[in-house]
Give the backbone structure.
Amino acid sequence: MVSESSQERSVPSEKGIRKRFMSLLSAQGVDGVFNTIFFLYLAWLDSTVYGAIMYSLAAGIVVMKIVQFGLYYPLVSDLSNAPPDDAPTILNRVNIIKLGLFIPCMLAVLASGFYRGFSQGVTIALVVVCLGFALEALAETFFADFRVRGKQVQEARIKIVSCVVSYVYGFVVAALGFDLIVISFFKIISGIVRIGYGMAAHVREYSTSWIFRPEWSAVGQVFKAASVFALIEILGILYNKTNVFFLESYVGLSGVAYYSATFNIIDEISVLASEQFLGWVIFPLLAAFWGKDRNRSGRLVKATGVWLFAFGLPIMFVMHAESALIIGLVYPSEYKDAVWMQQYLVWTIVLSFGTNLFAYLMMVAGKVKMLLVFSIVTAIANLLFNVALVPSFGLLGGCLVIIFTKLLMTALTYLYCRVKFGFLQETDFLFPLVLGAACFGLFTVLESLISLHPAVLVTLAVYLLALRQYGTRFLGPLPRHVGPS
């Protein structure tokens, strides 16, 4: 008989946090490079093909969100608190739900292609690309298990392989002159590679088949639990995107383009910390620690919160001070309005960091219903902000809407965690705030003396050197050094 201790899933360590995050970051970097080059090539090659692929990708992202259905969060919690022998069953019932959502999703995609009057080729490409996204959503089930076991390096390798194989295929068939349908299979190849490697690793790890007879009562319970998370995600998408629709009504598509040009840059930075670091590295650790060592969870939350804030400030500073350079390098001159909008939108970076950290803490603490209430309140406030600000202030109003929305959600989640758990206090953020304010004052003086770009470099160097020298004294150790007491 296997002893109880041997059946318990080993609690992962904070050691290697940086390595895990950098692995995921490298995979994201490879994907970003191939993605950019491939789609620029398509845009130059054939605008019709490019437009059809872009439309299909937008639809595919929606399909992926629906198939995932917020299952990641309860899945990580279940895996973290169950013995390893139960992992195959837990993963199986999640994929049963995903497969159940997959079929109606694909039928809806097919119906939408016919309803919108697309040609046969465009409709098939739409279905093929969405199918690829659905396969990637299934693969995410296995990746969640990797993250719980601290195997983000293995996940990153699989994603890099899938990225290289799929985009090389896309380049080759596009260069050889194949049509839209053949090109669209690049996404299915990515999904097949990910799910194939994920299943193979699963079988090796657990020495068992990935096919089980599902326990339908347990599947129903998981679906019910995930519904709350899915609703939170849907509301999050809603209050992050509604200002775009209001902007289109009052300033037209050109205004939407200018806003999106800078928001997409800012949002990419936020996603790196909010999804890949907090969601894929810190959240699995919190889920593992919470039921076993509450103090350890608190130290991890505090270290993560203060250091993310400390590193977020210089990112905001560079994005603000160098907004003209950044926008000018990426977009043509007609996007000049994006420059001043970026100087406002940088505030969403640290707000996104905070919101996601505190939201993940509430999730592992079982306060999901309260988090849903906060999401509903924020979504309602977002609509009121849009009605009050966009008609009167146009593009500036659109920027203020997203800032106020994120500020409200951050304030609600922080205050709740502050009162309920007490892991973080306002004074914990004092050192980076004072250091940041002093460095910004230095920048305003230097800019008039040595011009903009040298002043940015000097100010950034002073901030980072001071943070390196005194950071651990005032903020405590970095998350990767936070261990048991």
